[in-house]
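Q: I have 258 residues here and want to know how they pack in 3D. Can you give me a structure?
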Amino acid sequence: MVRVFELNGKVALVTGGGRGIGRGIVLALARAGADVAVNFIGDGVQAGVVAQEVRGLGRRSITVHADVSDRLEVDLMVESVVRQLGRIDILVNNAGILTFGPFLELKEEDWDRVLDVNLKGQFLVAQAVARRMVRQGGGGRIINLASIASGQVGIGYPNLAHYAASKGGVIAMTEVMALELGHDRINVNAIAPGLIESDMTKGILEDTEATRAVLARIPRGRVGIPADIGGIAVYLASDEADYCTGATFYVDGGWLAG
């Protein structure tokens, strides 16, 4: 029987891969056969545990430290991955931060930090990896993480002006990247998660009233888990998604449909 969505022989880099959605994506790619570099910032303990989980699945894995908003660190990260794993075929731009603040009280430094990580960071990593993909030949897959809070679907979310702006920018950037990189056989798509269980959403999910209100809007009747995002990432990274580029895939349990 022919297996679909196989990533055997592929090398992936997942930013922010040590926890939450990032971890779910790392493990899904590894189960599909990819070797995975796990990017982290901080002490790296969680990233190390995830890398060991990948090795337990019979795949190669390394951890690579980098602040994605710093070009020098990004360039060194990409060089390290290529040196240790040979190439990069798949990039998942997952690293991001989420903070809340009323628009009238939002501080400039909070705006800058969210945009630096969520938008500039994705630009820097994608540019560095895409340049490498062009040089090595053979095409590639770039998957950017957006959000249903991107403002692209006519729905706004209070207290998230900076976050929504960053994720809306990711979707716009994804479309332009797809146009420019298509001739090099590099497919670029975005995944826009709904509410997913993670460290970033812990505060929301601990609020029982808020959680009930959210669940009332989700036809599937549950909050998402990181594996839900890992599944669509594997598809977009696979040969079966060869004709998919420039698109945003909303993974929200039907939230936006309602």
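Q: Anything worth noting?
A: Residues 108-136 form the longest helix (29 residues). The beta strands are 11-14, 35-40, 61-65, 90-93, 140-145, 186-193, 248-251.
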